[in-house]
Write a structure and sequence with these properties.
Blueprint: H1 15-29, E1 39-42, E2 49-52, H2 61-81
The structure holds zinc ion (ZN).
Length: 83
């Protein structure tokens, strides 16, 4: 669901959805551990969840493993697309 937030950040309805998107975005961009969005937080203004890059990487070991798997899957997808 789309919400307007003055921060201009992408809004997510729940923390679960936001964390899943965080893993996907990190995998897609191939960020190193300290780059890119690191965590999700509930916004005081719109009460949706947004990404934040300000805190230390908070991905659980399980989420990190999933990010890695997603990244490898995309790597091979791209290989096939470029042929
Ligand atoms: Zn907001």
């Amino acid at each position: 669901m789309y919400r307007d937030c003055p921060t201009g950040k992408r809004c997510f309805d729940s923390e679960v959805i936001a964390r899943e998107a965080l893993v996907q975005v990190r995998a897609r961009h191939g960020y190193s551990e300290s780059e890119g969005p690191q965590n999700v937080y509930r916004c005081d203004i719109c009460h949706a969840f947004h990404f934040t890059s300000s805190s230390a990487n908070s991905l659980s070991p399980e989420e990190k493993a999933r990010e890695k798997r997603e990244r490898e899957a995309r790597f091979w997808e791209d290989k096939f697309k470029n042929r």
